[in-house]
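Researcher: Next sequence.
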Amino acid sequence: MPTGVLLLLAVVAEVTGTAGLSASEGLTRPGPLLVALLAYAATTALIGRVFARGARVGAAYGLLTGCGLLAATLLSVVVDGDVLTTAQLAGVLALGVGVLMVQVGRR
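Model: Next structure:
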């Protein structure tokens, strides 16, 4: 499996874990908590495989956390109906640009 696909799967697993953690309502609902724990374990295993293939920590982890934050923010807007302020939108835009710059800087 290509390294980029492993990284994408790690992002999906991380966002799934975060959603499960939120849905666990303070760790009181066992089903969503189990989803969160399994998803975070999958994230760790996947990013470990990415590192094992020689990916630089700064680039790979930066992408994981940056893309995870972007995806989680989008999920909160779509699922929870959160409304972002102008400052938050600017932050999301800056983060997106930062994630791209990390990748462009690799070449």
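Model: DSSP finds four helices and no strands in the chain. The mean pLDDT is 90.
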